[in-house]
């Protein structure tokens, strides 16, 4: 059954399904499973507990998933999104960061997943 284009309701709000991951895709972060994702802009309508303090740009973590346009290398995409992110966070009307913070975005192949500090924790500690 095709579901793309169909509408589902979450907390009484309609959402149109725009894509479906292939069956082999289980998640990006081990132990963090999701049945679906919604646009970031819709979060306030679904989670009433958010306050202006927790919605502040200094208190977020964002994972974005996308596909490279045919003919665009990961290095080209990395350069473009990092420059955009840098400009928006440093040179915006209300800057979030300073130039010396060197804000950037790191693009990773989805196959590697997001392991957070798993690599750090998998190495023996030196006491």
Quick structural summary:
Helix content is 20%, strand content 6%.
Can you describe this structure?
With 127 residues, this protein is an alpha+beta fold. It has a domain of 81 residues. Helices cover 20% and strands 6% of the residues. It contains three helices and two strands. Strands 1-2 form a two-stranded antiparallel sheet. Strand 1 and strand 2 form a beta hairpin. The longest helix has 17 residues. The termini are far apart. The mean pLDDT is 77.
Short key terms for the protein model shown above:
127 residues, alpha+beta, two-stranded antiparallel ribbon, 3 helices, 20% helix
Structural class: alpha+beta
The overall strand count is 2
Distance between the termini: 56 Å
Largest sheet: 2 strands, antiparallel
- How large is the radius of gyration? 18 Å
Shape: globular
List the helices and strands and how they pair.
Layout: E1 7-10, E2 13-16, H1 43-46, H2 74-90, H3 118-121
């Amino acid at each position: 059954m095709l579901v793309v284009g169909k509408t589902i309701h979450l907390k009484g709000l309609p959402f149109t399904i725009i894509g479906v991951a292939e069956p082999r895709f289980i998640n990006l972060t081990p132990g963090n499973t999701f049945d679906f994702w919604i646009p970031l802009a819709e979060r306030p309508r679904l989670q009433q507990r958010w306050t202006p303090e927790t919605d502040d740009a200094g208190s977020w973590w964002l994972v974005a998933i996308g596909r490279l346009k045919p003919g665009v290398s990961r290095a080209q995409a990395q350069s473009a999104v990092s420059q955009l992110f840098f400009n928006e966070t440093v040179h915006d009307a209300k800057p979030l960061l300073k130039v010396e913070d060197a804000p950037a975005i790191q693009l990773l192949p989805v196959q590697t997943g997001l392991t957070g500090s798993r690599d750090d924790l998998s190495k023996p500690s030196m006491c």
